[in-house]
Protein 1
Amino acid sequence: MICQECNERPATLHFTKVVNGEKSEVHLCERCAYEKGEMSLFNGSAGFSINDLLGGLLNGANAFTQSSHNPVAHKEELRCPKCHMVYQQFVEIGRFGCAECYSTFRNHLGPVLRRLHSGNLVHTGKIPKKAGGNMKLKKRIEELKARLQELIQQEEFEDAAGIRDEIRALEKEMNANRDHQEGGEGI
């Protein structure tokens, strides 16, 4: 996405503003956000970047795991075996040195990801309102089909039959929704 202000640089800051009940989305590059005064929303300094935001989240996560200022409690610093980046470098820079860093620092990223994704370790995204009903049904059907296969392998055929019937009912509901949406668009 390109910056809405300069139409040149990639937009790295995305704001949702609500003014007098009117909701608007603004997509800006860091330079335009600073020039428009949007950076004051964060800390008011010119040195803010997305890397600073990530670094702040990482430092916040470490505040709970580090021991007190005891110099004897010094532990060996975690280092990526491939690119030799240490965790503190990642915190300062805000990005990894190589793909192996994801595995190396995996245990330190959990608290940060939970904070970014409202308590989840995986970002699931948003479902558009128009297609949301069928997408949820489709996901549920996929889950039930996987469960059905497990039950068949375990030779629990009575439970499998119940799951099969539930899948059929959901598929019928999904088809009815689809027919309703297609019929309603011509109005």
Protein 2
Amino acid sequence: MPRLPDPGRSEAVLIGCDTYAHLSDIPAVRNNLVDLGSVLGESGGFRRAGVLTMINPAHPDQVVVRMNEVTDRASDVLLVYYAGHSLVGDDGELYLALPKSRQDAPRTSALPFESVRSVLSRSPARVKILILDCCYSGRVLTFTGSSASASGFASLSEVSGTFTLASSAADARALARPGEPYTAFTGELIRLLRQGVSGPAELLTLGAVAAELRYTMGSLGLAEPQVQETNGVGAQVGLVRNRAYDPAVEPTESPEPVVTESPEPDADEEAEEAEEAEEAEDREDVEWAHDAPATEDLLHRAPMAKVLALRLTETHVTQPEVSFLVHLDGPWGSGKSSLLNLLEGQLDTHFRVVRFDAWQQSRLAPAWWSLLTCLRQAVADSGPRWSRPFVRVRESAARARRTGAPYALAFVVVALLAAVLGYLIWPQDSGLGGWEQQVKAATALFAALGTLGAGALLAARLFLWDSVRGARLFEQTQANPMADIAAHFQWLLRHADKPVVFFVDDLDRCGQAYVVEFLDMVQTLVRATETARGGTRYAAHFVVAADGSWLRRSYETAHESFADCISEPGRPLGHLFLDKLFQLSLPVPTLSAGARTAYLDRMLRVAGPPPSPEAEGPPSQEPLPPRAEGAFLERLRRFEEGRTRSVYETMQGVTERRRAEHTLRKFAAVLGDNPRAVKKFLNIYSVLRPIRFMEGIHVDPDAVALWSLICVRWPNVADHLAAHPEAVEGIVEPLWVPDHFPEPLRAAAQSPELRAVVTSPDGGPLTPELIRQCSGVRRGAAGRS
């Protein structure tokens, strides 16, 4: 069974160069060393004191001397890592560049890999791990030059117990993206070791890490790492404990415990353990958990939030006049509001996010009035405080121009009444010499102004829809109220400091009449905005988080008399209405067993293992970045942001678009002649593919395409399959349909077109496991063969 290195008999050497005199600098290497060392020392089988870090060593001999010192202490596992430039000599040998290395003189200025090979060959360690993050690193796996045979050193493939992981092929270059905290290869390695891979393996073995890196790097269009091992050590030794270990798919036979040699605990250690046990007893009281939406990713929804943010940003940049409407579909309590919080964090710098709580607003006023009021408040709040009254005045003037005659007539009548009142109260004497006359004059003036102000305010509330009653009166008195509403909606969008995206929450707590009114109003505003002529149009995006069943049932109830003549098998009337409104509908991902366990641990405040003590070995040549957990997480967050953009760009690239088009052509007859179905398929596929990849679910892209087709053409069947993946057996064999599908879905499940999609050789046949993966359920082994 796999095991971790014995901490007392294992050592690691991390070597890297980030500055060069004659080559380009690689600033990310410094972070590579400190954070890789932190991961290995915290959750791996290495002590912090057993991880030697060498940054920018001055001379090759210095590296060899320090490596030999470490080698003598390692009898179980020895790990050697290098990151930086590499050079290829005239003899074909690989040289690891040091700060003063020269391209034209690698033999005299760089570290020959032959020296590293010599250290590994002489090491008494049972397992030798070599990780190279440099260009042409694959040469160490296939090198057969004359120098090796002449020196008598064995090649790596002949060194017993050796596992070599090279970041690139023998003739390929490694990648370090400008501005990223890590190089591409080491960043993926650190992310993998830190976050783990969902599955039944408690340890991340060398083989699982290598396979995961090969898949990830290849899918991103980067150089695939090269692997070579002897004696099958890849499956025997784990680098770290798997943080995403999923006990729900644990093998039936529990692995035997790993027995390692460790010194007897001294008195101080026993006292510390007793204190920790006492603290654990104090934490046995379970605190009450609130139901407020989370602001941090406790449910592993960050990949979906990041991909949606990129999609909305891309849509606005490429088509600024087109609105994009997204539906996040999930039952009550599934974390939709928390997902909106994460999405707002991703969009806040590019968009003005307007929150709209439909349940609170549904009791007050017409849907359009509540929406415009929220938008008006957001526009006013976007500027400095001193400018808000001016924005308010300009917005009122804009409404007055659209309201026209009724407001003007009302204002004239109020002004006349104020003048008459002032005239009646004004003193009749021509002079104002006495104080009594002055008081009467002031009273008349204030009465007239008060009447004018109150009347103007009343007229504004009635005719400028500044109140709920005014909004309803406006609807009743205007020939085409939605045209004026859409025009003012445009005015507000034009005066916002950023593009606007509405987050609509709790719509699935409203009555069916309000649900239909609100969604129809949104569609009317969007259509009126996009079809208006003249001038620049400003589009608003909408993200509606609501239970799809609630929304669909609202439309089906409101239009019940049309259900029989419009509905299709597997695609009832409610789905048709939502398809017409939303360009993209995504189900909120279900929680895997591992995620549920981690979430429960967080609610119970179960602490993870304490970090290992800092190393007390000799300091490195130069100061390294701080090992603080916060700094590490910030660098990892920055790397993941860049990785998200890279994943999205790769998944939207020409290759993926051609794959989608190819799959679509094969099933064009199944999609029918509805252009909207084609658009929906492309939208769903282009978003599901990067989301599944970033969630660590490695599924065949053609299988994702097949699943996207089912979601578009037979959404009811897709919902049932997502909840009961085994029901796909009823589609493959029609005789089993009654055993797997309820009566309303049986006609659709027996469709020959659906069966052709499910049993397709391109990406299929769809199995229960493939359906789980396509719908976001992470199961399966931690490694890939």
